[in-house]
Amino acid sequence: MKITLLVIGKTDAGYFVDAITEYQKRLEHYIPFDIQIIPDLKNTKSLTVEQQKEKEGELILKSIQPGDYIVLLDEKGKEYTSAQFASYIEKKTHTVSKRLVFIIGGPYGFSQDIYNKANEKLTLSRMTFSHQMVRLIFVEQLYRAMTILNNEPYHHE
Fold this sequence. Notes:
Layout: E1 2-8, H1 14-27, E2 33-38, H2 49-63, E3 69-79, H3 82-95, E4 99-104, H4 112-117, E5 120-123, H5 131-149
Parallel strand pairs: 1-2, 1-4, 3-4, 3-5
């Protein structure tokens, strides 16, 4: 199984890029992982929020492969502790045969087509974070999950 984080738009703040890259390198030790970036939409000022979500949704759907297990990072998703998330990842390694794809939507969330395509929704917090912070928080939590599963001292209860 491979884990993919699918995101809209690139991270432009260098300190986020550095931190995300560090956790990506750490994850290589445990599991195949990559971040797939869908370019930001251009000329969005003339689009309604719904039109923007639809266009982003079309781009997301083009990036999804047959057999992918789709998890939306969404404020209405299920919330886990770090230990519960580790257990969740462990279960998925036994049940997902191809890619476990976590998706961070654009600034207005997901289109209905993406909600319909998703297998489940997960939230990192009930609080709202910038999309760049969510990327960092997700890769850190995935790394934490891997250290928990390997009984390594990174996570403290």
